[in-house]
Amino acid sequence: MPDDLIHDKDAGIDRLLEIMRRLRDPETGCPWDIEQTFDTIAPYTIEEAYEVADAIERRAWHELEGELGDLLLQTVYHTAMGEEEGRFSFQSVVTAISDKMVARHPHVFGDEARDKSAEQQSADWETIKAAERAGGAQKGTLDGVAVGLPALLRALKLQKRAARVGFDWPSTDEVIDKIREEAAELIEARETLSQAEIEEEFGDLLFVMANLGRHLGLDPEAALRAANAKFTRRFEGVEARLAAMGKTPAESDLAEMDALWDAVKREGRLP
C-alpha cells in the first residue's frame, strides 16, 4: 500500500484520490464508505455546497477553506464511484470541464476579441450553451434544468430559459399584476378549495415571486437566505431581552414578544 502518498502533505489531489481509493477498497476500506452509492452521497453534496455558500455569506473566511475541502471531497467521492463502475474518472471529469471552459471562452482562449461588456459575454455564453444543447440530447428549451435543484433556484432557471425564447413579461408591472392575481386566487382557495388545491395556488404565487426577483435583478434564493438570517438575528434578540427579564419565549406572549421584536428592529437601524 502506498502509505507514503497517504501521509505526504504536499501530494495535493493525488493524495486525496488515493485516500478515497483506500476508503472504498472492498477488502481493507471503511465499511461505511464502501456501502455508499451515488444516491446516498448526493444529499451530502448538496449540504456541503450550501455550507460553502453559508461561509461566504457570513464572510467566515476562516471556515471557507475547510468547507471548500468538504465540497471537493464530494467530487472525489462521486468520481471514485464512477471509476469503479467504469463510467468516468476524476481525470475524465477534469478534462471535460477544462474542455468546456476553453470552448465557452473563445475571447480568452480563441480568436474572438475581448472588448465586450460583461453583459455581452454572458449573452455569448448562453448562445454557446444553447448550441451545445442543440447538438446533444437536450432539445427542448427547458431540458437540462436539474429537477434536484432547490425549488426557488430551479424556478429562476426555468424562467430564464423561457425568457430566452421570448416567453416573458416585458416589465415588472405585469409581474406585479400577476402577483396580485395569484394572491387573490390563494385567498379564495383558502376558503373554498381542498388542501391540495391550496398548495397549488401557493406554489403559483411563489413561482411568480421568483419571477419578480428575476425582473428586479435579484436572486430569490439569496434574498430568502438573507431574510432567514435577519429573522434569526431578530428573534435571538427577542430571546436575549426575555432572558434579561428572567423569562423564556414559552413564558411570554405574542404581544410582549412583538413589542420586543419592534425594539430589536429599531436598534438594528441605529447608526
TrEMBL record:
Primary enzyme class: hydrolase
Key word Hydrolase present: yes
Transmembrane segments: none
InterPro entries attached to this UniProt entry: MazG-like_dom, NTP-PPase_MazG-like_C, NTP-PPase_MazG-like_N, NTP_PyrPHydrolase_MazG, PRib-ATP_PPHydrolase-like
Superkingdom of source: Bacteria
SUPFAM superfamilies linked: all-alpha NTP pyrophosphatases
CDD domains: NTP-PPase_MazG_Cterm, NTP-PPase_MazG_Nterm
Domain NTP pyrophosphohydrolase MazG-like: 36-109
Molecular functions (GO terms): ATP diphosphatase activity
Name by which UniProt lists this protein: Nucleoside triphosphate pyrophosphohydrolase
